[in-house]
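Here is my example:
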Amino acid sequence: MAVSVAVDEPGLLLEGPHWDSRTGTLLYVDIHGQHVHRWDPVTKQKDTYDIDCMVGAVVPRESGGAVVAAGTKFAFLDFETRQLNTVATVDPHKPRNRFNDGKCDAAGRFWAGTMGDEPVPTKVDRKAGSLYCLHTDGNVTKAFNEVDISNGLAWTSDNSIMYYIDSLQYSVDAFDFDLPTGMLRNRRQVKTFDPPVDGVPDGMCIDTDGKLWIAMFDAGQVLQVDPETGTQLRSISFPAPRTTSCCFGGPNLDIMYVTSSRVGYSAEEVQQKPLSGCVFQVTGLGARGTPGMCYNG
């Protein structure tokens, strides 16, 4: 196993990596930088798209371009014209809220959650967020509210379970998931963490064996967890304490890409941790990921 820097141009708060297998590129966002990035690991070329507010997640659209969760809106991003067209807005009575992480299910719906104002990393307006679903017909439904920091999402290969992280609950939760309707039920914890030791659970992905890989903020690590037993299987360390999310990519979906943050660091801390805000890659893991899904609307 080897950890190296994939994209060595540090951002502020990189999040939401998503491998687009159709184009062989890695999509990710810089939340505080208000950018969507599209990086080609072969040419090393990075295209950057400016967003007019904090952007929490980006996922490709089946019909081209991408869908983003930015500020409190769902919007379509056209890669050619670089235009952003709003589809729907949420949390109208909470102007300080913003979208955070998001991902698509196998039916092509886009799930993304909001969070309250965060003046200091992990210090937020409590219970101000909600988890939303943008359906393929453009309608938006709310799955539940009273969320602190809406984060990682993943589905089992048979689509019977959805895993979810609300970071300040310091756990991974599971729901029974109905793919035809998108309905969730029977919420339960499958893994809990000790923040001083493990860090704060952030973004995550799932491998073909059904094991979860969870980026632990403020701990500089990604943990592999068996959600059926709640046991930690592996830990991968990174030269950036604020690891934020991860995904599998590459032609064989066997390279792990990991995003990180430098938000909240002083100039001196940035000098001490210069790779914070970079995208890392992990090779030789002996694991493969499941393909990232596109929005089908």
